[in-house]
Amino acid sequence: MRTELGTLVDVREPKDAEEPILGPAVRAAILGWLAEINAEAELAAVGVKPRSTALLSGPPGCGKTTLAHHLAARLGVPLVIVKAEMLVSSSLGGTGRKIADLFDGLAEVGVPCIVLMDEIDAIGGERSSDDQACAREMNAALTTLLQRIEAFGGRLIAATNRPASLDKALWRRFSLQIDVALPGEDERFAILKRYGQPFDFGDDAIEALTEITAGAAPSLLRQVMEGIKRTLILGSRLRLPADDPVAVLRLVAEGARPHPDYTPPPLWADLSLARVLEDTPWPPARIGG
Ligand SMILES: Nc1ncnc2c1ncn2[C@@H]1O[C@H](COP(=O)(O)OP(=O)(O)OP(=O)(O)O)[C@@H](O)[C@H]1O
Ligand SMILES: [Mg+2]
């Protein structure tokens, strides 16, 4: 029996997209891609097509899924997210069949969309020469995936945070490779400021936070700013030290930590760095009253 497309994908509408804050190299790559997609006819006149596949790689929480959704929204189409792990089946030939059902289903959708194969390393890992049944099964599934991507007529983005583990033939199927890396200083400043809204923490405080969070992913920066806002609103109710910015930051950083496998950003290596907020006017004003 064929697996229904609805059980394999999750659809996100353009109106729900959020614009990620990205470094100059990623921004340039995205703008370039959008420009070629919008110049399809001019390119066809010289015998070239806009590229239709892209691979986004980078550490967790740096905005790969957010970026794919934003791109779809910029083109005014929904994003159809396939979690690669949903395609993995324990039955013999099951993974390959699900991949085939997925692409058959996508071919029947009939409206333009962007397909995101998220966490593609779950099925696109390096082929193995091992003759175990499990390895043979994954190799067969990968071959199906390669053929189906090759034959797919639509726009396809894949995302991974383990690019080195991807099969080389699969890698080659993506005509555009974009490295969504950890944010640099300017990007961290903008991310902290964005997620601090509607409070205005002041540029000095945001600058200090930018310094002590070097190496943090945007998702962690968001957690920190949202944690501060939660404490500001609920602090007195929960008897938290909401009146003291240093204590607030310390508390929030104790509660939201980077993964233990990563080198911790300065704040998490030494929580006493929360003192950089010592002279910050507190509580911060709310923008617009
Ligand atoms: N560059 C960014 N600018 C602003 N916000 C970001 C950025 N990157 C991530 N975020 C925020 O962090 C959260 C997680 O981001 P997202 O899911 O896009 O990361 P990811 O790279 O796909 O992670 P994973 O590898 O775990 O799938 C989102 O809520 C998003 O709002
Ligand atoms: Mg993701």
Automatic annotation (TrEMBL):
Q: Transcription regulation among the record's keywords?
A: no
What are the boundaries of the signal sequence? none
Q: Name one GO molecular function term.
A: ATP binding
**SMART domains recorded for this chain?**
AAA (SM00382)
Q: Which Pfam families match?
A: AAA
Listed A to Z, the keywords are: ATP-binding, Nucleotide-binding
UniProt entry tagged with the keyword Nucleotide-binding: yes
Q: Which CDD domains match?
A: RecA-like_protease (cd19481)
In terms of InterPro entries, this protein maps to: 26S_Proteasome_ATPase, AAA+_ATPase, ATPase_AAA_core, P-loop_NTPase
Give residue ranges for domain AAA+ ATPase. Answer: 50-184
Its family remark reads: Belongs to the AAA ATPase family.
- What is this protein called in UniProt? ATP-binding protein
Q: Which organism is it from?
A: Methylobacterium ajmalii
